[in-house]
Amino acid sequence: MIIQYQHARRCIAACLITPENTNRLATAAIADLERRRDDPASRPLVREDARRSIETIQTFQRSVNALDLRNVRFVAAPANPNPLLIHGVEVSVFPDALAFTNHRDGDRIGQLFVRCAIGGEGDAAENRRADANQHLATIAHMHAVENLAGRGTPHSPTSVVVDVMRERAYRGPVSTTLRVRNIEAACRMISAIWPDV
């Protein structure tokens, strides 16, 4: 098994970290993915992932300006981030980059997640996806509060989820109270149901 879209996510994060190199990075990534896609020795899943990743990178190139991320500076994320512990549930959080915005009182910090999956069609699917992206941005903020306060002031709207295939960027909510409460309630339920290992 392979993790789908990992090449696309890595490329897109690198483009956001060094926007002046976007064309060079995207061209190199697409060339590598075309080799994987066209290599008869590649497994079908590898070829299909390469094809989808190429489409994803090309979509990102077309839509990056519309994402309105000019006021956010991205840097490489730590290689082995600490998990987030919520009411006895350990949540792995692997951001694609760290995000910073400048304010009069200093840097504010959040995290970037790049989502590439196509997903289902229809209003209900779109609403579920938007809600999931907002929850992910909230988890990114919670993780920043626990682990990144030494690098800036954790700030929910500085955390960003880029839904590449929908050409949208979701910022963390200004008020996280309700979403944090929902996430904590879900983790309490999981902790109560799952046996201790």
Report on the structure:
By secondary structure, this protein is α/β, with parallel strands linked by helices. Helix content is 46%, strand content 18%. The strands form 2 sheets. Strands 1, 4, 5, 6, 7 and 8 form a 6-stranded mixed beta sheet that branches. α1 runs antiparallel to α2, α1 runs parallel beside α3 and α2 (22-38) packs antiparallel against α3. It is globular, with a radius of gyration of 18 Å. The model has no long low-confidence stretch (mean pLDDT 91).
Short descriptors:
alpha/beta, 18% strand, globular, 6-stranded mixed sheet, 5 helices, 197 residues
Q: Sketch the major β-sheet.
A: 6 strands, mixed
Q: Indicate the proportion of strand residues.
A: 15-25%
| Mean pLDDT across residues | 91
- Outline the low-pLDDT stretches: none
The assigned structural class equals: alpha/beta
Query: Rg from C-alpha positions?
Result: 18 Å
Supply the number of helical segments: 5
Question: What topology emerges from the helices and strands here?
Answer:
Elements: H1 6-17, H2 22-38, H3 44-63, E1 73-75, E2 84-86, E3 89-91, E4 97-103, E5 106-115, H4 123-147, E6 153-154, E7 160-163, E8 168-171, H5 177-193
Parallel strand pairs: 5-6, 5-7
Antiparallel strand pairs: 1-4, 2-3, 4-5, 7-8
In short:
The protein has 197 residues and is of the alpha/beta class.
